[in-house]
C-alpha cells in the first residue's frame, strides 16, 4: 500500500506526495465503509476495533523497528512529529460519555402529538437499598 516510501533521509517530495495521496484514498474508503454502517453500532464498533488494532500493529512492529539509531536522525524525527501535529493517538470513548449518549437518545422521545416527552425514570439509591432490594 505504501510503495516507494523509504527512510526519512532518502524520501523525496514526490514519494511523500504519493503517500499523502494513498492515505487520502484509504481514509475515504474507511469513511465510506463507516457511513455504510451508519446506525449499526456493532459493525461500527468492529470497525473501530480493527482501526485500533491496526494502529497498535503498525506502531509496535513496523514503526518501532524503523526508529532512528543515531541522535541526528532521532532529532529530525522528533522535529517532524512536533511540527506536523504531534504523536498519533486513538482516543477511546469514556464510559461516562457512552452512557450519557444513550441517556440522551432514550430519555427524549416523541409523544404521538409530536412533542418531546422525558421518559427517563429515576433509579433507586443503591447505597440505601437493603438486601431485599427495597429502598429506604
Mean pLDDT: 75
Q: What is the chain-wise order of helices and strands?
A: HHHHEE
Number of DSSP strands? 2
Strand order of the largest sheet: 1-2
Unreliable runs, pLDDT <50, ≥5 residues?
1-9, 116-136
Share of β-strand residues = under 5%
Span of the ends, CA to CA? 63 Å
Radius of gyration equals 24 Å
How many H/I helical runs? 4
Largest sheet: 2 strands, antiparallel
Main structural class: mainly alpha
User: What sort of overall outline do the alpha carbons produce when their principal axes are compared?
Assistant: extended
Q: What is the helical fraction, as a range of percent?
A: 55-70%
Description:
This protein has 136 residues and is mainly alpha-helical. It is built from four helices and two strands. The chain has helices at residues 13-36, 41-65, 71-83, 95-107, and strands at residues 108-110, 116-118. A two-stranded antiparallel ribbon has the order 1-2. A hairpin with a 5-residue loop joins β1 and β2 (116-118). The longest helix has 25 residues, at 41-65. The radius of gyration is 24 Å and the shape is extended. The model is unreliable at 1-9 and 116-136 (pLDDT under 50).
Summarize the topology.
Elements: H1 13-36, H2 41-65, H3 71-83, H4 95-107, E1 108-110, E2 116-118
Antiparallel strand pairs: 1-2
Main traits of this protein?
136 residues, 2 strands, single chain, two-stranded antiparallel sheet, disordered N terminus, mainly alpha
